[in-house]
Structure formats: C-alpha cells, structure tokens
Amino acid sequence: METSTTDPILNKNFKYLFKFYFIIIIIVGFTSENEFKCTHPIYCQGNLLKTIQLSRIFSDSKTFVDMPLLEKPDVILKAFEEIPEKASNEELKNFISKYFGTRGTEIVAVEPKDWKMEIKLLKEVKDENLKEWVQFLNIKWKTLARSFNNESCGRDCYSSLWVPYPFIVAGGRFREYYYWDSYFIIEGLLLSEMYETSKGMIKNFFYLIDEYGMIPNAGRIYYLNRSQPPLLTLMVYRYYEETNDLDFLKDSIPYLEKEYSFWNKYRLVYLDEGIRTNLNYYNVDNEDPRPESYFEDILTADKYTCEKEKVRVFKNLASAAESGWDFSSRWFKDAFELSSINTENIIPVDLNSILYKVEITLSKIFSITNNHLKQHFYKHKAILRYKSMKKYLWNEEQAIWNDYLIKEKKQNTNLYISNILPSWAGINNLSKEQVDKLLDTLTPLLKYKGGTPTSMLSTGEQWDFPNAWSPLEYLLIKSLENLNYPKAWDFAKIVSKKWIENNYCTWKKTGYMFEKYDVNIVGKPGTGGEYLVQHGFGWTSAVVLYLIQNYGLDLKMIKCL
Q1: Is 326 among the catalytic positions?
Q2: Whole domain around residue 549: which residue ranges?
Q3: For 399, which of 79, 287, 438, 474 could close a Cys bridge (C-beta 3.0–4.6 Å)?
Q4: Are residues 325 and 444 in the same domain?
C-alpha cells in the first residue's frame, strides 16, 4: 500500500479539510460514553439480579437474563422486596416461576421468504456425500431463522433488543443475533442466494445504530455497553458486490459513517506519552459483572480483595468480550491466569486490520457514489493507520504483526491467527523473503490434522489451543490467498481441506455443526470457556459453504473413522 498521495484534490488545502471533516464525523450523534449502558433494574443491575445469579439456581448465568418478565419491572421489584433477605433457593425458584417466563418466547422461528432448496452450489458439487452435506447446511438456515413475537407487556419485559427484520441466530444458548457472527453468516446466506434475508439483517444493524448510536455485541440490552468487531461496512459492500444494489449502498452511508465515528471517538488509543495514535483498541466503560456471566465474573474478580482491582477485572472482561475472543491468553498479563486480564492495555492486530479494511472500503464506496472528498479522506485515514500499524505492530524478525502492549511498550510475540490479518485486510507489500519468513512463523499452527488452532498456548480458555474457530479459519485462508504467493496458496488449500474434513466428520458422527473444534482429533468439538460447547451453528455452516464453493467443488470426502 502506498503511504503518500499526489492527488491534487487531496493536496489542495487538504490539511484544513481533513481536520474539519474528522472533527465532524467523530462528534455527530454522541455526547457521553455513559449513554452506552443498560440501566434496566432487573436485567442489568440491582439486588434482584445479584441475588439470583449468585444463588446458582441456573448453572449458566445467561439463562436468567434471557427470561422474559410476566409483569412490569416495578411490580416484580416490589414483590422481590417482600422476600426474606436470606431466602432459600426454593423460595427464589418459586419467585422466578411466578414472575418470569420461558426464555426465548419473545423470539419465534420464522420461515425465510427467500429460502430455496435448489441453490447453484448444490449443482456444482460433484461428490454425493458432499452434496448431501451442502443440502443439510442450506436447510439449516431455516432452523436458525428468527423474528420477534408480540411484545407481551412491552419491551421492558424482555432483555432482547427488538429489530424489524428476520435474522439468523448463532444457535444453542445464543438465541439472539450477534454482530460479528453476522458478517460470516451473511457470506453463507449469499451463497444460499438468500439476498432478502441478508439485506434485512444489515438493515437491522442500521436500526440499532439509529436507536443506540452503535451496534451492540448482540441483541440483548445487557450488551449495550459494548460492541463487537466493526464489520458492518464490509457486510454492506459484500452484499453490494453480489447484488449491485446501488440505491442500498447509497442509503447505507450515514449508518456506516456513524459506526466509524463510534470507534474513533470511544476506542481510539492514546499512548502514555500523550500521543494520539491512528489505532484503536477494545476498551469498554464498565464497572460491574457482565449480567450474562455474572457469577463467573464475580468468581474471577474474587481473587482480589481491593475493590479497584475487581472493577478493573470487570472492565477488562467486558472489553475482551467486545473483541469476540472471550477469552484468550492474548488479553492476559499472565497467559494462564484469567484474573490478570488487561485488554485495555493492548492494541490488537485484528481490530486495526478490520478498521483499515473498513477505511479502504469506505473510500471505494465514496468513489462509486462520486463523493471524492470523502473518498480521499478515508484513503488518507487508511494510510495513517497503516503507518501506525507498521510502527507499533510489525515485527521484522518474525515477519508478522503482533499485538502491542501499551504500558510495557513492547509486542506480545506469542503466536495467534490474528497475527496475519493485515494480509486479509489488504496490506500485502511484503517481499518474497518476508513472505517466506512469515509462513515459517505460521508453520507451527498448520501441523494439526483437525484445523488451525487459535494459539499455541493451552490455557483452558476457549480462544486458545487446542480450539479452532470457523471465523478465524476463514480469515486465515483469505489472508494466505492475499499474499499471492504459491507456497501461501498451498497453505490455504491445506487449511481449507482440513477444516472441511473435520467439520464433515464431526457432522457425520453427531449430526451437528459446532461453534468450535478440537484440532487434535478429527470429529471432536472444542472445549473450555465459561459454558459447554454449543451446536447450531451459524458462522460454522457459513464458512463451510464458502470453503466448499472455493476449495471443495471437486473434493471427494474422506471416510470418517
């Protein structure tokens, strides 16, 4: 990527236009980060939430905060005040039974209007076993499609964030839409020719930006204080590539800019020496346990006696959850100790790769829509980000990009799939020698028969060894492709084949698609983390469809053991 420009439009008085326009885009629509909080007196804070979650009536903390209310919140709170302070679990169960409904009843299964049995991909696949699997994956969208039911006693009576169009859920305990999941899910929906569903999911995110000024982590009010990797612009452009819907692309622009503004107002990095970088990080304004992981967060923070340290843990747990990697040794001071979590001290490679690609894509969008000032503005923002990434994240010795530890002023040199994501984003100005060195650095990740592990550290966390995840396999493969080098292409083919085969054999063995897989054993779901491994699973199905389309049309499926 070039790091300078000679465009006369950009050069003429640009420094003044740039400063003015940058100020405008980061302040529109925002007053204080405190607006990005949930204040619901039952689902997000208060003694009722604390009492139920610490009672361990439910082994999964998410269960309680997903249950709809059968009365208005003030009625329930008044009834709770009448319960003895040290009520038994039996008394609490009776209270819950009287005032809370079955989780998920505000969201109902829906038949997608644009779903069809015969998709183009089915006709292109040659192997009959593979064809059967593609048919299953295509049908799976029908089982994961949801819409909102009637509002019962009003939106205060459930934790879901209402949206106007049907959506695809992740699956399992995840009964709501998730932000970064949807990027990969839409890739799969487009391969299943479900353009209306894809467009509706994107428009749901526009609605959320209108309502809340950002896109929450997922469709629950207890996620309102955090987002997830900012992939909306890339969803919109991907949809445009498939449909050529120029009117929709034009209509999307205000939402895309507003989301970009959120990240540059609330997640911009300032280094200790007072220097404002052109880089971003995950840094959620949070002082409490996450409602959906209340007990787990209390347990983690209880390793400290100081209240200030407990608050630090809560803040950093929420910040890591915003990354989507909840949790990984990437975020820890001590790689094997969750309570040492320190997300706010880290400039992540993947987030900045995503935002670089967002800036490049916004520049393309403004070129298509003939707004050349903004076209050059976003190109210049990408150039500035690239320079900062090169300064802080690039590691010449490894020929790879590493997370940067702000206070320590050094890189985290442990190996993670995220280290190669600048290549996915389009930063591919490496020499042949650097590409060879980069591939040598990655080689330890590529030796497992079940896929590519997220890291080489076995910590018990779900975003570490031996787990592999579909979104990261997808991004790794796209990164290798973008290196545009024969050995990298060979690596991409190997990674794709392993991932297809592991997903296929696990499906043949269990009948399910899982959220994560164990790279040591073909046919085994992943483990670790705060909850049992979940099946469904939206982004897993989507990535498999993508890989079959791009690497598996002539593949003959193995006989699974």
Answers
A1: yes
A2: 420-561
A3: 438
A4: no
